[in-house]
Structures are given as C-alpha cells and as structure tokens.
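Subject: sequence -> structure tokens, single chain

Hey, anyone have a minute? Need the predicted structure for the following. Not urgent.
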Amino acid sequence: MLKPKPRRVLQLPIVTKRLTLRDFTTGDFAAVYHYSSDPRVTRFLFFGPRDAHNTVEYLDDLVASQSEVPRTRFELASRRTGRTA
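Reply:
Had a minute. Here:
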C-alpha cells in the first residue's frame, strides 16, 4: 500500500526581522481599498479598480478561502516590521 503524503501546513504569521506575512482579515478593508481602488495601481492587474462593494466581496471571499481544506489560495498581507540597512 502507498503511504499517504504528509500534509504541509503553512504556519502564519511568518515574522522576520524586517517583514511579517499574515492572513488578511475583514479589518484590512481600508488598506485593501486604498490600493485596489487606485487606477494607477491596478492598471496592469487582472482586476480593478475596485469600488467599496467589490472590495468587501473580495475580502469576504479571501477570508472564507483561508479555512478550505485543502487550502489552495494563499494571498497574504505583508507589513514591514523593521528597518533596512
């Protein structure tokens, strides 16, 4: 018999000296709306610009996808946590 492959699990948040990667939350609305509603930012992306309603839908779908098993969607929020040299 074949042994089942062990499941790989991404442990979040990932914190380094200079960066934190974490799952998005619905509380990230203001930051996501800020960049995703700007036509200059979304010009070469597959979406956008997004209005407030579409941003809420996007975040709701994204947060829901985080509990899917197996998880296949990994869009992570980033935050600079330190200074660069």
